[in-house]
Design brief:
Aminopeptidase, alpha+beta, Gcn5-rel_NAT, 26% helix, 5-stranded mixed beta sheet
């Protein structure tokens, strides 16, 4: 699991802080699936790879919990499709 990605349980989102800015993915744990509703990065983080690092951490968390990922967000869906090493997690 990526130690940089933290699970903010109270706000139902995974967070990655970089240079004081935040990238996050809102989620819901539904049965054995981790439903990713939305991924967002601060404007200053766009194009830096922060959202990808966040998604890698989310995927590792899902794997460590024995969950699949159901991406409702277009970015999350595209990221998983591009990273074949996580294709087994796609729900």
């Amino acid at each position: 699991m990526s130690s940089a990605v933290r699970d903010n349980v109270a706000n139902h989102r995974f967070e990655l802080e970089r240079n004081g800015q935040l990238a996050f993915a809102t989620y819901e744990r539904r049965g054995s699936a981790l439903v990713i509703r939305h991924v967002e990065a601060a404007i200053s983080l766009r194009g830096t790879g922060a959202a990808g690092e966040l998604m890698r951490g989310v995927a590792e968390i899902a794997r460590s919990e024995g969950r699949t990922i159901k991406p409702l967000c277009g970015y999350a869906w595209a990221w998983i499709r591009r990273h074949k090493e996580y294709a087994d997690l796609l729900n």
